[in-house]
Amino acid sequence: MINLEQLLCQWQLKLGTLNRSINTIKAYSQDFFDFKFFYNDHHNTTLTLENFKKVTAQDIRAWLLYQRKKGMNTRSSARGLAGLKSFTQFLLSQQILEDHAFFHSRSPKLQKTLPRPVSIEQALVITNTIQNMSENAWVGLRNQALMQLLYYTGMRISEALNLNQRCLNSGQFITVIGKGKKTRQVPIIDSIREGLVHYLKVQPFENAPDAPLFYGEMGKRLQPAIAQKALRDFRRANGMPESLTPHALRHSCATHLMQSSHDLRGIQELLGHASLSSTQIYTQLDELSMMNTYKAAHPRARKIGSSKEASVAEK
Predict the structure, then answer these.
(1) Of 85, 179, 184, 198, which residue is the catalytic one?
(2) Are residues 92 and 146 in the same domain?
(3) 247 carries an active-site annotation
(4) Is residue 232 part of a domain?
(5) pTM of the entire structure?
(6) Catalytic residue list contains 116
(7) Residues 64-87 pLDDT 10s
(8) 10-42 residue pLDDT tens
(9) Is 182 one of the annotated active-site residues of the chain?
């Protein structure tokens, strides 16, 4: 008779066929084991397939409360619930169950937060000087080429690091494989291409169409954690905000394009957003930026602000 562990393996394979990313599969799997650990402790028994079928709404609420007490944020809890729902849906597709409490559980309400881009001036400082942080010349050039690529194209860090060198042979566009293995064409300006070509000329490893575009120091494909550390070291050495990450460069690209072009559809295609609603958040940033500029520059706005401050002080 098939057991829970075997079904878990089958579910993971199924997620792969559905084009879920490796990170998503890992996260969903970890969420399942977190729930299993909680269940074992909560009921003082082992979570088996039969026990999983009997999970109640009270069990799920207790699990979410347990996560909150551990300090897990709402977004992570929502992802965990989505993972367990996915597993339950898989069991339904295998006709192992017909209904389950996870189907009826509501995801925690997520508080919408605006992206935190850097200014154009900060972005230029990063992309023009980060190479100076490394004692190894080719590593510095690699970091510069990578950060320029992220900022000027709006790529995700995973998309950039999955590129092979053949991408530089396709004219003015790079083919990027995004979420769900969907491909899109991203324009690349000459100066960014030249920076990549220069870095490849001086790096010590193989130059071939199927070789990684970005190498780590051991000659393997550069890992996201190393790129994140390079930017973390730079921001701390230069007194920049902790919110400055590779993903913040993607937000910065979109925000600065919105401020200059207001081309919502074009930015959606550049970023590879499946839904226009995901791109519309940058219009809110643009409106916020305009309002801040207005308040800082308009004499009437300053006068109103001063009057309000004086009124509050009198009270």
Answers:
(1) 179
(2) no
(3) yes
(4) yes
(5) 0.63
(6) no
(7) 999 888 888 888 888 899 999 999
(8) 999 998 888 777 888 999 999 999 999 999 999
(9) no
